[in-house]
């Protein structure tokens, strides 16, 4: 649905919406005829909630499309994930909790090794320890090329985030990693005329980096790739008139939420209980809360079926805390599926539950993939969840007389 | 989904996909409370396959739209059948296995009867016997109008296919059949400036045809209609990186498959067994096989409910041959419905089954219209089947990080 059309229908209300995203929620059975992770988990609280909810399955970006967490979250937040693409550099920056702004151009950086002739010998500098990488990032931060500000944030091993800040930067740039050894790292080239200035600044930065790192074997050079600016998303406040908060432990999810104009709340600790404490503590301050559960996906991606089952059960145990707050609307869903048997994200639709006093109950009393198939929401694009939530929250007026 | 978007995600794999299209598969019950043709048929093999598959119902071109076999096949092949329209002349040419190229302008031709004043007396020349038609086509082939090559292929009775070949032809042309008697056949007129040359050549051809046929009562004149060029489809190789083959006995299906860049395989005979032999013999040579079953539709269109049931059972009997090849992904579906009670194509969604090791089973163990309604694919556009098949075949990478 067109967001301009939706926006016209928004009306204020004293209601609260909670969107609980269980990362990588959808799964697959371990053996033919078996149950999925969610179907295996003992989830009395989610099942009770399902009995009062409308159920369905969400598709983040279309049939057969497996999405990363960035587009997966944008979709369930109500954005068209294909229209609002988050480039790799920007995602990496969000992942380290870097507060990217509209003037920022981000990239993924690698420390690498070149020989005396400047030819690449190791694209990852022997996957050097994160500790050393941290020191080298400190050195790169001393670089001063007039015309922009520069930020370097270590990620892990040889990887770092690079951000250049100046008005009018463009991401239409070629990458410097030649993806093979025995050749020089490539210069940055502008792929469109408006990127000339950006390319020029970057090449000067890289030249200085080369000089400063010259004696820092094995990490004596850098490569930059995945240049990206943030997509300019209309915010939750603009679109929906919602004062929205995000509760997430991992940087990337905090970053994507910030992109949607959500205020990222402080979480004292990194457990589910800590996240629900933050929710309780700030309950009065917002209309909308996005609460993110990460470890379900981590277990799915590592192929740990039982681990994922346990993680889902841990979420279930917190549902009474959530209900005690008496939200008007609750969404429980996922950004994508991560079946343990595939050890990866997958294209399978994701179970979703929409609770409010005004949903038409569908007579389904379990929360699981097959149960959701019999739900009244059907299989729907993930981005359709928000309009449904807003309607159930009394935040949309009638269209037409 | 945008095909450019999809194309970016395609990755090579050593997997094989079989798309078995049972023409006109969907049906209707004969009497209230009764079963459809597919539900009536005894299909133990398809039912066993369904139990390991995701089921659903496909809509070729939208709710309520009844499609012909051309758009029906384009849709299940993954193309938007409204965007890529195959004109009537082009379809007729494909139907006689004419290998239409990009420089070809095709039309449906009729032999007709005019009186001494050139006024139409019979638009079908008394539906003259195909044998006579064949001889007259031979005469038309002698026509030589400079500026193009001309092809005439008899179809049946008074009908023939006409193809004109030259660079830069346009199909923006009016038809010559006035659709009533007592008037002269119309001249071809250009409907857009770029069609002037085409109109001029066609009128010269028709003038010569009139001269050559003058004494061939009752077929002493021709009309041409349905001028069409082929739509320029991106091929299976371009779009999906698939080396694709088509196994079909009837010309039209071979033609549509060729349009999608499939290699049309030789079938030694015209039975289902012959088609499955061709599949087995060429199994090593391709990634994707389209196998077409025609007679289900023929029975449906002639109102033969029992005949269609039998034809479906015959397909079922060949499923073990298919399974023996161990395809990674199997699609069993149809291009449209052809309920025997309607004696025609219909708009009803078409049962579809998608088998792979990675589908999420939906607990449905029958292949039939009502069973498919409870399947996990839901009711989906036919063109969404290919992305799902590619995902299940491990031929699509994740989108976004």
Topology overview:
2 copies of one chain form a homodimer.
Chain A: H1 3-9, E1 17-22, H2 37-40, H3 44-51, E2 53-59, H4 69-76, H5 88-95, E3 104-114, E4 120-122, H6 130-140, E5 149-156, E6 159-165, H7 196-213, E7 221-228, H8 236-240, E8 244-247, H9 251-259, E9 263-264, H10 272-281, E10 288-293, H11 295-301, H12 305-324, E11 329-333, E12 350-355, H13 369-373, E13 378-381, H14 385-392
Parallel strand pairs in A: 1-10, 1-11, 2-13, 8-9, 8-10
Antiparallel strand pairs in A: 2-12, 3-4, 3-6, 3-7, 5-6, 11-12
Helix pairs in contact in A: 4-9, 5-9, 10-12, 11-12
Sheet/helix structural class of chain A: alpha/beta
Number of distinct helices of chain A: 14
**Estimated helix fraction of chain A:** 25-40%
The most extensive contact between chains is: A-B, 39 and 29 residues
- Cα-based radius of gyration of chain A, to the nearest Å: 23 Å
Mean model confidence by pLDDT of chain A: 96
First-to-last CA distance of chain A: 20 Å
Oligomer: homodimer
Number of strands of chain A: 13
Shape of chain A: globular
Instruction: Estimate the strand proportion of chain A.
Output: 15-25%
Major sheet size, sense and barrel closure of chain A: 8 strands, mixed
Strand and helix order of chain A: HEHHEHHEEHEEHEHEHEHEHHEEHEH
Strand order of the largest sheet of chain A: 9-8-10-1-11-12-2-13
């Amino acid at each position: 649905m067109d967001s301009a059309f939706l926006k016209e229908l928004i009306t204020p209300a004293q209601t609260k919406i909670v969107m609980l995203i269980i990362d990588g929620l959808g799964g697959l059975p371990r053996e033919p005829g078996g149950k999925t992770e969610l179907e295996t988990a003992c989830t009395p609280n989610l099942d009770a909630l399902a009995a009062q909810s409308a159920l369905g399955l969400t598709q983040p970006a279309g049939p057969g499309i497996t999405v990363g967490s960035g587009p997966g979250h944008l979709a369930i937040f109500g954005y068209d994930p294909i229209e609002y693409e988050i480039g790799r550099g920007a995602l990496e920056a969000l992942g380290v909790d870097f507060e990217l702004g509209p003037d920022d151009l981000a990239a993924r950086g690698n420390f690498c090794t070149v020989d005396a002739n400047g030819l690449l010998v190791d694209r990852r500098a022997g996957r050097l320890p994160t500790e050393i990488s941290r020191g080298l990032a400190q050195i790169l931060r001393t670089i001063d090329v007039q015309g922009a500000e520069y930020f370097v944030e270590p990620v892990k091993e040889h990887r770092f985030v690079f951000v250049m800040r100046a008005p009018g930067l463009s991401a239409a740039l070629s990458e410097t990693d030649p993806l093979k050894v025995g050749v020089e790292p490539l210069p940055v080239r502008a792929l469109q005329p408006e990127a000339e200035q950006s390319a020029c600044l970057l090449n000067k930065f890289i030249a200085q980096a080369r000089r400063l790192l010259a004696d820092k074997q094995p990490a004596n050079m850098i490569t930059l790739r995945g240049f990206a600016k943030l997509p300019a998303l209309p915010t939750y406040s603009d679109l929906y008139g919602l004062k929205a908060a995000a509760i997430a432990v991992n940087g990337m999810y905090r970053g994507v939420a910030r992109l949607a104009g959500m205020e990222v709340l402080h979480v004292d600790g990194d457990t589910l209980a800590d996240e629900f404490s933050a929710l309780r503590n700030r309950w009065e301050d917002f209309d909308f809360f996005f609460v993110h559960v990460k470890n379900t996906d981590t277990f799915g991606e590592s192929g740990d079926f039982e681990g994922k089952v346990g993680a889902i059960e841990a979420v279930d145990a917190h549902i009474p805390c959530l209900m005690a707050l008496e939200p008007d609307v609750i969404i429980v869903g996922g950004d994508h599926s991560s079946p343990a048997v595939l050890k990866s994200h997958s294209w399978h639709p994701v179970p979703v539950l929409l609770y409010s006093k005004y949903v038409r109950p569908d007579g389904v009393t379990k929360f699981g993939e097959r149960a959701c198939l019999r739900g009244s929401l059907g299989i729907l694009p993930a981005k359709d969840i928000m309009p449904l939530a807003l309607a159930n929250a009394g935040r949309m007026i009638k269209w037409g007389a």
